Amino acid sequence: MTILPVDLAKAHRLLNHGPTVLISARHGGTDNVMPAAWASVLDMDPAKVTVVLDSGAQTRDLVEASTHFVMQIPVARHLKVVDALGTTSLHDMPDKLDRAGVKLFDMPGHDLPLVEGCAAWMICRLIPEPHNQTTYDLFIGEVEAAWADDSVFRDGRWHFEDADPEWRTLHHVSGGRYLGIGDILDFNRSPDEGPGA
Amino acid sequence: MTILPVDLAKAHRLLNHGPTVLISARHGGTDNVMPAAWASVLDMDPAKVTVVLDSGAQTRDLVEASTHFVMQIPVARHLKVVDALGTTSLHDMPDKLDRAGVKLFDMPGHDLPLVEGCAAWMICRLIPEPHNQTTYDLFIGEVEAAWADDSVFRDGRWHFEDADPEWRTLHHVSGGRYLGIGDILDFNRSPDEGPGA
Known about the structure:
Two copies of one chain form a homodimer. By secondary structure, the first copy, chain A, is of the alpha+beta class. Chain A has helices at 58-66, 79-87, 96-100, 130-136; strands spanning 3-5, 21-27, 30-36, 39-44, 47-52, 68-73, 104-105, 114-115, 120-127, 138-149, 153-154, 157-158, 170-174, 177-185. Chain A has a single domain (3-180), classed as Electron Transport, Fmn-binding Protein, Chain A (Pnp Oxidase, Chain A, Roll), CATH 2.30.110.10. The radius of gyration of chain A is 16 Å and the shape is globular. Strand 14 of chain A pairs antiparallel with strand 14 (177-185) of chain B.
């Protein structure tokens, strides 16, 4: 497994299929991470994303203060980590990240906390939209850099079919219950044809 | 199989796991349907959704003119229908819906076209946000009514585990290639506990 850069024109493919993501941010010496099921691609080139960050979430405060965040894609083996991150608060539990078993790392040139072991990472610059943020808790980010683990995403495509099942992305249904992503519904078409390619 | 109303406080669960949706709308005697992979829950109660509707899409014009749309959730057996809808335009092909094999039906009290055979349907009232629509092609809807086919969604929950595989939701990856949703990653927790329940 090697972490490789993702062509920004294809970064939307990391999120097209609707996985639950982890949002992490850093400000003033504080790192935090939260799961977010309500995330979507907004645009392809330049790649933009939307994510709903509840007004009670401390990670949101860090995003607003630092104007950057990481949107990363956890996988099946992170199930308990993701659940723990979603059910605890840094306010009440200062060692929340350690207790959840989260290990962070930095990418050179970016002062942001990335979560180890994810399938992919997108570093996003907040596009300030105060009305959306205040009224809807809706945040827009432009993807400035992206990487993926070549165990499951390489050459601009997901490769769930030949990866270990622990690399399947998580899709939240409700109450800490997740579905894994399934198999390709084959269609005999090139992945580089058609809409959304 | 019976189409049953979905409690609006649980309508977000139809979309939490990130399926590709079909957006349909009606105005001035014209119906149209388009696939949209870039859709997300925005809020729970009242349930709101976001969806990106490209400026070239005729369905978008119908949504803007009528201020309503249907967000419905197609499943594996719709693969070719969804692809056909995404690769043809009503401008060029007036019988696009017939050719794609789409059958529409009405719900009493709602002057909107619903696509037969989907897993679920949400009737949405457009919340006008001209800046988002113009700048980002981003549309916000409030869910006014929702139904699901009890073959796969009942009692406020998805039941993929005991439904035929043809009921698996579609998750677009790129270029008309879709993944089906997979199985529950079991966690031994009640679906009514925890965040996002």
